[in-house]
Amino acid sequence: MKRNSPHPTLSQVARKAGVGTTTVSRVINGGDRVSPKTLARVRRVIETLCYVPNLAAQTLKGHRTKTIGLVVPSIADPFFASCAEVVQAIARANDSMLIVTVTANDSRTEIENLNLLIRHRVDGLIIVPANSQSPALRELLDRIAMPVVAIDRPVAKSAIASVVADNLIGAQTATQHLIDHGRKRVVCLTGESTLYTIRERISGYRKAIESAHLTPIIDTSVKDYKSAEYAIKSLLDGPNPPDAIFSTKNSTTIYAFEVLQRFNISVPGTIALLGFDDFELASTVRPSISVIQQPVEEIARRAAEILFEQLFDERKTGSRLFSKHPQPIRMHTRLIQRSSCGCVPQIS
Amino acid sequence: MKRNSPHPTLSQVARKAGVGTTTVSRVINGGDRVSPKTLARVRRVIETLCYVPNLAAQTLKGHRTKTIGLVVPSIADPFFASCAEVVQAIARANDSMLIVTVTANDSRTEIENLNLLIRHRVDGLIIVPANSQSPALRELLDRIAMPVVAIDRPVAKSAIASVVADNLIGAQTATQHLIDHGRKRVVCLTGESTLYTIRERISGYRKAIESAHLTPIIDTSVKDYKSAEYAIKSLLDGPNPPDAIFSTKNSTTIYAFEVLQRFNISVPGTIALLGFDDFELASTVRPSISVIQQPVEEIARRAAEILFEQLFDERKTGSRLFSKHPQPIRMHTRLIQRSSCGCVPQIS
DNA sequence: CTGTTAGCGCTTTCAC
DNA sequence: GTGAAAGCGCTAACAG
Fold it and tell me: Which range marks the domain in which residue B250 is found?
C-alpha cells in the first residue's frame, strides 16, 4: 500500500505529468510562469486524478487557513442568523470559509470556543462578546495576534474594533416618539439588564424621559410570558397605570403584545407599544407593532469588511496595525411606524 | 528573525522544558507514558508560552481536521438556522468545529462549496441538497471518500444517508384534517414545486383528497404577497370558491394569512387555513394558525449523530462502510391544532 | 520556463 | 520514560 488517503498528492500529479512539484504548485496557484503547454497538461492530470490541494499543507507553509471564525450567542436567533448569513457571504467573497461557534452568552464557553478557533488558526475573528466587560476575554483577544472585530457589543477597554447599533439613540427616539404621541407614563419593560445592548437602551429611555421631565418606570423582571403577565398586571393595577410600553427587545415585545391581547387591552388606545428590534411578523399581527429597526445586515457587513481590511493590511505590512477604529462604530437605527404606537390607523 | 508567527511551536516548548519533542507531543495528547514530574513541567511551559498546537500540522500527519461542513440553502431561514444550531452543538460534543456554507438552492454554488470544503479536508459533511436529482451532486458525493448525510431532502439514487421530515404523511394528515372539519373544496397553495419537500407535500395532499373522492385544486403560483393575493382572489371569484387552504410552506402560509386578513375573510369561518411548518408567531396572530410541525431539532440531531457514527466506524475500520441507512429516515411530523383550521375557538 | 531542495509543526516508529 | 529522526503535502528560494 502506497497511500491510504483518498486524496492524490501534488507530487503524484507532478510524476504523472512528468514535471517537477514546483510546476504543479505554480499551476494550482494561478499558473504564472508556466508554459501554456505544460499548464494544459498539468491541468488535465489534475482533472483526471481529481486532485484537490491539501489546505493543511499549504497552511503549514503559508500561514493562512482561509477560514475565519464567528462567535455568536446563538445561530437560531434571527438577528445572529442574519449576521452569520452576511458574514459567510463576505467571507466567501474573500476566498475564506466561515466557522461558526455558539456561546449561549456564557463566558466560559466563549473562551473555550476562542481557544478552539485559535487551534484551528483561523485568520480572523468576528465575535459577539458574551460579556462586554469580561477581563479574561479582553486579555485573550489582546494577546492573540489576529484581527478581531466585535459585533453588536464592544469589548470594553480594548483596541478591538466594534460595530454596533446605536442602541442609546434608538431607544431615546423610541421613547421620545411615545412621548410625542402624548403619552405621559411610559414604562420600560426589559429583562437581563446585564447585557451591553440592553443597558444602552435603558439609558436611551432614561434620557428621553428625563428631558421630558417625566418619571422613569423601569421593570426589569420580564423573562417569559408569565413574568410579563405579572409585570404588566401589577403595573396596570397600580396607582398610576402606564399609558405606553417601550420594550427593549424582541421577545419582551412579543410577550407584552400577547399579554395585552390576552387581557383585551386596547393597543394603542389604552396602551401604546413600541419595541426595540424588528421581527418578521411585526407588521402582520393586529395591531401591527411599531419598532426600532436595527440595520443587521449593515452591521454584519461592516464588521466583516473591517476584518478583511485588517487581514489585508496585515498581509501587506506583515504585522498587525493598531485598530483604525478605537471607538465603536454605531450604526443608525430606524423608527418603523406601524399601528401599535398610534401612528398608522388600524386597517381591518 | 527566527519566527514571525505569533504562535510558539512544539519544539520551542520542548527546548524550554528541556525535553524532546516526543514528550511534548505526548503531553498535549493526554500525557500518557510521561512521568508526572515531566508532565507538570511541560504543562507549565505550555501555559507560560501560551502554546496552542497547530492543527494544520497535526492534520498533515493524522489526517483529521476536526471540522465538518454544513451546506444549507440559507442560514437566515429559521429552519436551517435551527439545524445549524443543533449540528454545531453535536459537532462540539464530538470535538469538531462547524464550517457553514450557503447555496441559495443553487446547484453551481453548491458544487463550489463542496469543492472548497473538500480542500479544507473536512472530516464529514451534512448537506441540504439544492436539487435532490442533480447527477453532478450525486457523482461528486459518491466520489469523495467522506461520510455524508443529507438533511431535509435525500440525494436520489445514491447510498447517501438522509434524514427528512415525513412530508407526505404530514401533508396528508393536514389535508385529511381539513376534510374532517367538513371542508369539501380544499385548495393546495404552493410555490417552487421543483423542491423535493414541496413535491412530497403536494403528493400527500393529493392522496388525502383522492381517498376522500374530492377534487384536487392546486395553485403553484405563490411566490410573494402579490401572487398570493392574485391566486386567492381568483380562486374566490371563481365558480367554486374553496372553503379551505392547505399551504405547503411557511412563507406561503403567511402570505395567505395576510391576504385573508386584508380582505376581511373570516378564518376559519369562510376559509380554514392549515400550513406546513410551524413558525414563531403562529400562535400569536389572530386567529392563531394551525400547522404541521416538523421535528427540526430531531432531524438535525439524527443526521449529525449518524455522521459521527460513520466517522467513528471509519476510524475504527480504516475505510468507509456502506451506508446503514439506504432509505431516507423519515421523522414524524405533528399536527398542531390552533384556531385557523377550526379546532380551537378563538379567544379574544 | 523548470526542477532541486529545505523545511513549515507535528506524530510516530524505533531504539535506548 | 524518553528522544532522534523520518516524513505528512506543500511552497519558495535558488540554481539551471
Answer: 167-294
